[in-house]
Specification:
The protein is 39% helix and 14% strand. By secondary structure, it is an alpha+beta fold. Among the domains are: 59 residues, SH3 type barrels; 74 residues, no CATH class. A five-stranded antiparallel beta sheet has the order 4-3-2-1-5, with helices on both faces. Strand 2 and strand 3 form a beta hairpin.
């Protein structure tokens, strides 16, 4: 009845519906892991298949046919090189972790896998979590890690960086460096600017 990558809608007691993607199902079809596909900082949820079947029988669970992340399923030739490079870089950061199923879904083992990836890649914990959640929410395919440029700029318009944009980036970089410098100076919290 349930398969990996199914998107299900679960109606909560409050009447609110939560969309989840099935990430993994054990061989005995007893437990599975799902993830909320609408929540930005979602983590895997361990569920019993029998509970999902009961919700379905009570018409509190339904299957969603249209994948909200369908845009990731495009031909490789249509992808700009820059997007492919970013996707591949992100994949290299998380591939060793996400392929360790079901261990990666358990918080106890996920922490140690994250620490190993941080040492190996030099990336922050926050960034690795962002990549993993994006990968899980969008269907556990490499293209799930494509950048979200389709959400940038005006509708149907390509965004270009002007001199004003470059100047803004310059000042934001300078401010970040300045704040980092100030944080290293021992001052009482009330006197700090950053």
């Amino acid at each position: 009845m349930f398969v990996i990558n199914d998107i299900i809608s679960i109606e909560e007691a409050s009447g609110k519906k939560q969309l989840e993607r099935i990430l993994w199902i054990d061989e005995g079809n007893v437990i599975c892991y799902t993830i909320d596909i609408e929540k930005e900082k979602a983590l895997p949820i361990k569920r019993k298949i029998s509970d999902l079947q009961q919700l379905h029988a009570e018409q509190l669970l339904s299957f969603i046919d249209n994948d909200p992340y369908g845009f990731i399923y495009q031909d490789e030739e249509q992808l700009p090189e820059k997007n492919k490079m970013l996707r591949d870089e992100r994949w290299e950061c998380i591939k060793d972790m996400v392929l360790q199923e079901p261990e990666i879904y358990e918080s106890e083992t996920r922490g140690s896998l994250i620490r190993i990836a941080m040492e190996k890649t030099g990336k922050t914990k926050r960034l690795l979590y962002k990549y993993m959640v994006q990968y899980w929410q969008r269907g556990k395919v490499k293209n799930a890690l494509l950048p979200d440029y389709q959400n940038s700029g005006g509708k149907g318009k390509e965004k270009t960086c002007t001199d004003k944009c470059k100047l803004s980036l310059y000042f934001r970089t300078k401010k970040t460096l300045f704040c980092t410098f100030l944080r290293n100076i021992p001052l009482p919290l009330s006197e700090r600017m950053c």
